[in-house]
Structures are given as C-alpha cells and as structure tokens.
Design goal:
Structural class: mainly alpha
Radius of gyration: 32 Å
C-alpha cells in the first residue's frame, strides 16, 4: 500500500514540475523543429525521398501484379487439367461424389 501511495505522490510531483517547465521547453523544441523543417535544403531532400518512394511503390506494384497474374494462370491451368482429365488424382473423389461432414451444434 505504501508503494502505491509513493508512486502516486511521485507521479503528482512529476506532473506539477513538468507542467511548469514543460510548456516553455515544448515551445523551444517546437520552434527548433519548425526551423529545421522549413529549411529549403530539408524540403528539397524530402521531395527527393517522396519521388523515390513513389517510384519504388510503382515498381513493387508492377512486380506484384505480374506475380499474381502468373499464379492465377497456374491455378487456372491446374483446375482446367483436373476437370478435363476426369480421373482421380491420389484417390480424390470426383466432384459429384464428395462426402460432407456436418459439425454438431450444441
């Protein structure tokens, strides 16, 4: 119990002390960040990185589209082969002879 009271007292003291000096320090940090962010060299670098990220995203999208297309073609070919062969692979039952098991409901 004493530990909880001590923890609450420390948290309260930290809040009060942080609130007094905190706003002024926060404003200083905020102003410094604003100056750095507004620097034309920083903005040029940000623009370069945005352009590079956009190019990489387009490239990744193209690669993904190609891989999905190839996978879809492969699956489609496999399904067509199975349907046209009419034979059972590895003992699988034909489509019309499948057995469905119902799960018990409680």
């Amino acid at each position: 119990m004493v530990g909880k009271v001590l923890l609450l007292a420390a948290a309260g003291a930290g809040y009060v002390l942080g609130a007094r000096a905190g706003r002024e320090r926060y404003d200083q940090i905020s102003d410094a960040v604003g100056r750095v962010w507004g620097n034309p060299k920083v903005q040029q670098r940000v623009g370069d990185l945005e352009d590079k990220a956009g190019g990489l995203a387009k490239q990744a999208g193209s690669v993904a589209q190609e891989k999905v297309g190839a996978a879809a073609s492969s699956v489609s070919g496999t399904v067509k082969d199975k349907l046209s062969s009419g034979s059972d692979d590895a003992g699988d039952a034909p489509l019309g002879d499948q057995h469905h098991t119902r799960m018990p409901t409680d």
